[in-house]
Amino acid sequence: MPDLFTTLITSPLAKKAGVPQPTRLRRYEPGGPLCEGPVLVAGTGPYVAPLRQWLGAAGLALAETSDAATDRLGAVVVDLSDATDPGQLGLLKSLAPAVKKLRTNGRVVVVGTDPATLEDPAHVATQRALEGFVRSLGKELRAGATANHVLVGGEASDGLRSAVGFFLSGRSAYVDGQVVRVDATRGGNPNEERPLDGKVAVVTGAARGIGAEIARVLARDGATVIAVDVPAAGEALARVANEVHGTALLLDVTAPEAGAAIVEHARSRHGGIDIVVHNAGITRDKLFVNMDDSRWDSVMDVNLRSILRMNEALLGPDGLGGGGRMVCLSSMAGIAGNRGQTNYAASKAGVIGLVTATAEDVTERSITVNGVAPGFIETEMTARIPFATREIGRRMNSLQQGGTPRDVAETIAWLVQPGSAAVNGQVVRVCGQSMLGA
Amino acid sequence: MPQTSPRPVRRAAILGGNRIPFARAHGAYARASNQDMLTATLDGLVARFGLAGERMGEVVAGAVLKHSRDFNLTRESVLGSQLDPHTPAYDVQQACGTGLEAAILVANKIALGQVEAGIAGGTDTASDAPIAVSEGLRQTLLAANRAKTLPDRLKALASLRPADLVPAIPQNVEPRTGLSMGEHMALTAEEWGVTRAEQDELAAASHRHLAAAYDRGFFDDLVTPYLGVTRDNNLRPDSTVEQLGKLRTVFGRGPDATMTAGNSTPLTDGASAVLLASEEWAAEHRLSPLAWFVDAETAAVDYVHGHEGLLMAPAYAVPRLLARNGLTLQDFDFYEIHEAFAATVLALLKAWEDPRFSKERLGLDAPLGSIDRARLNVTGSSLATGHPFAATGGRIVATLAKLLHEKKQQDPGRTVRGLISICAAGGQGVTAILEA
Ligand SMILES: NC(=O)c1ccc[n+]([C@@H]2O[C@H](COP(=O)([O-])OP(=O)(O)OC[C@H]3O[C@@H](n4cnc5c(N)ncnc54)[C@H](O)[C@@H]3O)[C@@H](O)[C@H]2O)c1
């Protein structure tokens, strides 16, 4: 329920008075088109032709050049992954008329080469420059439009398709100004409408909030969901599990045997695990100098240490097999820091470290481990923030609104697809390009 | 090819259970109806076992204190639950034996191949109990309803007396003796010389065992919180014999009275359900049986003219059950004897140890003997959990099945067994054997 303040500033009167109005974001619907057309694919890189072919096959109209196009554009995709000299970036400028023609909820996706794989200073600088361009353009775009960046390492056509597809689609509604790196690992979705068909997914903290929405979205995409939460949340958990036709498993993720219990439940009842989403998390805010041990310890234990402990079983011999997927919930606070949240931010930054290191460990087993860092998400938790603070939190991002649990869930549902095999060790922010943090 | 000849009898498996925490009457569940509680309990079971949208062979449950509008209580609960609405259901009622009798019925149909899987349960609220109008008011209203003209109707209504307006609140009283169950029990306790100290000892143990079971997470997959209650709220983890010894007696008369509110069960609200199935259904659904339903026996005593205690029927049922299965009273790893009152359990145990009772009443050459008390109600029983009448059977069946499963895992080499004994109003007793 919107509070009075929200009602006021979104009223027709406020609109007339010039208060910026958030755009209703285009969100993913199964079976719907990938994005609105026509799409302009530009650039000099090697992916221009394959991207055009793929988008055409997906039924999207393609614009030939930005000048000739009289229509509004749904998206602009630019491949400059071949650029080695900053001079070649001038091509971006020629796209200004096309960007001007972007529709509401339009998309800009820039494809580059992962600078970490390059050596020559001019080459590295050129590719790195693209990131600055994307992040600034994201802040300039209006009306729900986003700009994101895909970095290619190696001959990464499957990974590129998965990431570009995500950024074009409504799944990425609240993902803006982000960089995602894809490697050369191959993989596609056997069934685009139900990409998670036949998969067994464990979601911790699934009784409410973001976790409950993750359970719903994974189930919608075809997964059988094992919904995990503490015994005290059993009533709500049962509702979620029944709604998604999954099973409820009551356990505290901090229990020493939690990982083994999940593996045992998944093995015996569903034949194994394909997907794990470490979502359970708590906040116990207090200024650092006033923080007692129990606040520090409980936040560390639930948000970080439990994941390390459970992963011994979840990534052990009976846990995730080849093609397995794991996603851990980090937070904007773990990247940018937040007053009153030294414990929480430490735990969530720790999660990022855990994701990067674990991803490297399991890559040869064809398992991916990624992180998602939500920004301001409209949940019961954020609804309790006093309205002025909340309104600022909500608006301090390029999309000028809060995200929904659904936005976080859609990003996770993309990361765990078979077709996202080339996305590993990444932390994707779902924050509408928040002004806090990088 | 028609297959109309009798099929071989199969084993019925207990796959698990669910209940809501039991709550003292007029407290946390004061506004919940029997149907609300049973529906929530079914949904918790459905979530635990992934049964949303599943058609079960049948759901059998009941309530002891039941509104007349709840004539189809179980079916209505099924329709409100996440089970496939094509799941049939029926109500049973056998006082405090309701829940166990429901499990017997489902197990028997599974054994005969008439259903593959079913749910047995029970629910009771002492808070939302039906209140009946007085017999005078009822007769008057019925007469007015039958009257054809307005003057006739008014004449019928005019016969109403002020006393007729006093409602009849259900009482825990035996209709044929006018004695409450507690008063009946007090007579039996005195007859068997059950002491106050013994009763308080048993009550303290019940609380201690229940608290310990909660603490080790035993109930994490047996209980789903409801309306903010996460544990049975009658539980007093630090209850001691000393504290219990200070309570005044409430049943029985004179200085020899022994029964208090501490060693008797309080009025309680709650519901429970148990999932039973054939071995094949369990395997198809990747569920492993916790235990098997072996056999059951129900007995009744003539407490009106026959000088037997109202709650002593299990004393008769158990020897018959044992004889039929070639077992002795000592062949069990666990005994679940419903603690209607601490004295009920103690009187039963004394009866089985007593040579004269065994010879004269049971017609046995030797008494059944005593049991290892360390195996009795090891995770607590009704004195600690409370006793929502029809829900007690389901609580006990699921608890015992899990205990047997745990024991079997520690000791896979042999068959482990448990005995259930539940006394019920009307001088009845329902008993059963489970094994793993
Ligand atoms: N809401 C936001 O704006 C936001 C922003 C950034 C990150 N996050 C992260 O997203 C995740 C979900 O957040 P939310 O807003 O949905 O929170 P929430 O409090 O609504 O839900 C968290 C769930 O986790 C469960 N949980 C807590 N401790 C547990 C334990 N020990 N074992 C099992 N389950 C446990 C809770 O019972 C609850 O159901 C958290 O990790 C949170 O840190 C949220």
Characterise this structure.
- The complex is a heterodimer of chains A (438) and B (436).
- Chain A has 438 residues and is α/β, with parallel strands linked by helices.
- In chain A, 38% of the residues lie in helices and 16% in strands.
- Chain A folds into 2 domains: 29-182, Rossmann fold (3-Layer(aba) Sandwich); 200-430, NAD(P)-binding Rossmann-like Domain (Rossmann fold, 3-Layer(aba) Sandwich).
- In chain A, helix 7 crosses helix 15 (405-415) and helix 9 runs parallel beside helix 10 (293-314).
- The model of chain A has no long low-confidence stretch (mean pLDDT 91).
- Chain B has 436 residues and is α+β, with helices and mostly antiparallel strands.
- Among the domains of chain B are: 135-165; 181-218 and 293-431, Thiolase/Chalcone synthase (Peroxisomal Thiolase, Chain A, domain 1), CATH 3.40.47.
- Chain B is 36% helix and 16% strand.
- Chain B has helices at 34-49, 73-80, 98-111, 135-146, 150-158, 181-191, 196-215, 241-245, 279-284, 313-325, 342-353, 355-360, 382-385, 392-410, and strands spanning 12-19, 23-24, 58-61, 89-91, 117-124, 249-251, 259-260, 268-278, 291-300, 334-337, 417-424, 428-435.
- In chain B, the strands form 2 sheets. In chain B, strands 1, 2, 3, 4, 5, 8, 9, 10, 11 and 12 form a 10-stranded mixed β-sheet that branches. Chain B has a two-stranded antiparallel ribbon with strand order 6-7.
- The relative contact order of chain B is 0.20.
- Chain A binds chain B through residues 227, 231-235, 237-239, 241-243, 245-248, 250-251, 255, 268-271, and chain B through 40, 43-44, 46-50, 52-53, 82, 217, 219-221, 223-227, 230, 286-288.
- The complex binds nicotinamide-adenine-dinucleotide (NAD).
- Nicotinamide-adenine-dinucleotide (NAD) binds next to helix 7 and helix 13 of chain A.
- Chain A: Residues 199-375 form the Ketoreductase domain.
- Chain A: It comes from Intrasporangium chromatireducens Q5-1.
- Chain A: InterPro entries: KR_dom, NAD(P)-bd_dom_sf, Sc_DH/Rdtase_CS, SDR_fam.
